[in-house]
Amino acid sequence: MASDGKKEGSPENTIQRPKRQKVSTEDLPLVPNYVPTNPSPKTTKSRKDFSVGMAKQLLLNQVKKNCSNKNFALSPVSIDVALGMVAAGSRGPTLERMLALLGAQDIDEIKQSASAMMAAANCGGEGGDGPVLCMVNGAWVDKRFPLVDSYEEEVLKGIYGCDAQTVDFLHQADEVVNKVNSWAKNASKGLITNLLQPGSLSPETTIILANGLYFEGTWTTQYRFDVSLNQKRDFYLLMGDTVSIPFMTGHKRYHYESFDGFKVLKIPYQSSAELNRKFSMYVFLPHEKVGLQNLLEELCSNSGFTKQDYFNLREVSLDRVWIPKFEFSYEFNVSTTMKEIGMTFPSVENPEDFSEMMKIPTGIPFFATKMIQKVVVKVDEKGTKAAAVTYGRVLGCGGPPPPKPSFIADHPFMFVIKEEISGLLFFVGAVLNPSL
């Protein structure tokens, strides 16, 4: 296939970046009972860094493991909310580790941030002009470990809008699997099915805390893609092979910028006049066809990814724009991944550390913890559908203007779905093979 004929990233049309610094792994945001118009910028900033940092490290980790033919996605917001639900019921060393992990000063900051996140993540509805965004939480607790009243009423119901269900993991684990799967299917509007497999819950399970996030957005009218203009084009895989897939094209003026080693394109979603929420998808495309790992390493730098330069883009006329249609699901073990990237997932050596959450019988030696997330993303001519379910389980430039640039996403790239007012990144992913 012929090349574009222009060398993106040349000095005349590229923003040069400062020298890469070391990775920072701070943290992200959550939200309570009142409904603020927007999350506190201070709270959002400190909480955002942790989950966003984890998202970047996860994607980089998977690429380094030579998973060159898989697509990846996660929801930093969903992970953060699930971790916050656990932290709000913890005390002692476990709470200290959770606070350090989430970058919070105390449990009040966790709760305040959680309230703000819940408010930011619930807007729009079926049939409205703007996007549909819905966050729901679920809790299933074993009858042997009843919830502490204050945790159930003030935290689960008051902050997370969650009604806990009492179940019997010891004798009816597979029935609980069906209940959780039914909840996940409803929370994701049918996109996520079979979150748990039969036999996946052990009799020692004591509680499952889950967060479900659903997003459906339609491109702003002027940015919608005309299906009649779709073309089958080659997409270049990391290992050198190609696949022929449908590409979309349309509007010629986009918010766009070329940086040192990659370029960014913004596609806005239609918003509602009644809701103070604006969502956009950002596509991060390496200049080199095999440059995804270098891009992720750059975004994992101390100044990368949350740096506003990457989102403050100029509106320019582009010569050509081609973006592939894609749809995929991805499931990963959050706790295992955190260990792989050097972040310690909190363990519970003393069950009494969960006594703010559950009534703990004497003689319980320890609790093991596990967190899983499953994400589904679909991007087509009309817009985007995306859903995530996370569950935690406890077990016992100057110069002349350059030529018009092009944006042809015919090789592995990264994408972000961002809410512009709060600055929250709801979904982050990498497309390595859109044919899957």
TrEMBL record:
Segments of this protein annotated with the region Disordered: 1-48
Pfam families membership: Serpin
SMART domains: SERPIN
InterPro entries noted in UniProt: Serpin_CS, Serpin_dom, Serpin_fam, Serpin_sf, Serpin_sf_1, Serpin_sf_2
GO cellular component: extracellular space
A single GO molecular function term of this UniProt record: serine-type endopeptidase inhibitor activity
Lineage top rank: taxon: Eukaryota
Compositionally biased spans, kind Basic and acidic residues: 1-10
Residue span, Serpin domain: 57-434
UniProt similarity note: Belongs to the serpin family.
Protein name: Serpin domain-containing protein
Organism expressing this protein natively: Rhododendron griersonianum
